[in-house]
TetR/AcrR family transcriptional regulator (Nakamurella flavida), 185 residues
Amino acid sequence: MGRRPQPEIARHLLEACTDHALAHGLPDRLETLAAAAGTSSRMLIYHFGSRDTLLRAVLDRARRRQQEFYGELLTARAGEPYPVTLRRAWAEMTGPRGRPYLGMFGQQLRDSTGQRLWPGFPREATTDWLPLLTEGLRTIGRPELATLVLAVIRGLLLDLAATGDTIRTDEAFDHYLVGLTPRRT
């Protein structure tokens, strides 16, 4: 008689593998994740079935973490102008807490392995932030700018990933936000 599934162990392993992948990227070899999780490759296969299934689970878990984190950042706050919220969100997204997500979802899913593991990601990653941005921009009377704001954020994130020039991309985002700030009459 075989062992019964142990979801609590699988959850623990998934969290450890996700932590490692966010810090170091998706590995080429399963042994890397096994070592990070304090287990063997054989046990990872036992709990997840295959390398690709585990990698998809890691990507999914990392994406849920990112959605929680960014969701909190992009949600409008009572009494705070939304451009201020966006500036704080940008600083967090590009800072130490946000960089692991940028690395994983910026580069990892553009390569062939990422496309194979999560083929619909580019579209999903573009559209899933629009409702939050729309609601936030509604607070300043500009909900129609959600696609434009998202495009600017994504473009500057690509620029930052390509150049590493935090100062220039931060300044560009600040200049952009000036145009979103309602003018006083």
Observations:
- The chain has one domain: 7-180.
- Residues 7-180 form a domain with the Tetracycline Repressor; domain 2 fold (CATH 1.10.357.10).
- The chain has eleven helices and no strands.
- Residues 90 and 153 are 8 Å apart (CA to CA).
